[in-house]
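Please annotate this fold before class:
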Amino acid sequence: MDSHNLLIMAIPAIVALSGGVMASVWSPSHQTRSLIQHFAAGVVLAALAVELLPEISREHAPGPVLIGAFALGSLFMYGLKLWTMRLEHQATLRGVDAAKNMSTGLLLATFIDVATDGFIIGAGFAAGGETGMILALGLSVELLFLGLALTSEALSGWRIIAISGALGATVLTFAVVGNYALADAPHAVIGAALAFSAAALLYLVTEELLMEAHEVEEKPISTLVLFSGFLVFWSIQLLGS
């Protein structure tokens, strides 16, 4: 792995840490968070439509392999969703103090989600071309929001910075692992990894970013922010090429 690719892989880690630093001194309103989530959803959708899906087609992997990998990715994210919901339900039943104790389990689910993002980035670099860079930039927006969303009754100040730093280290580690694991892999394997990644990104947009964004009363400008995120990312891709 050359230093240039490693530097790009480090961008999401730096962004995650930056988000935590910002969250330690600034707690955005629910409406502001909703707008950030809409923008992030637009960026991730653009990464999926503009770069990832075309790259899957270029890998020329067998159709059944891609279908199976996408289905496996869907089931993996579904299982992660069920596990997170179970942890949240148990925390609610046990009250506020228990919810703070359960934060360890919820954070573990978050780390698994971030590790998946890192592996997606590594798979993109293994595929070659600009895929890795495009995915790294796209997922950086998600990680920025994640850092900003860490503020809670149980987390504040230096704890937010420490956890966001650990999340950044996780995404970088798994990006490197994914790149090495898939380096010189057959087209079918890389295509399967990218199809798995596509399912994970689709889940991220529909079941995390937009679902949470709609928990507050949505304003008309939210739709414009969503399309702005898509347009900004697409513009970067077009101008960069």
Summary: The CA atoms of residues 94 and 102 lie 9 Å apart. The chain has one domain: 3-215. The longest helix spans residues 63-101.
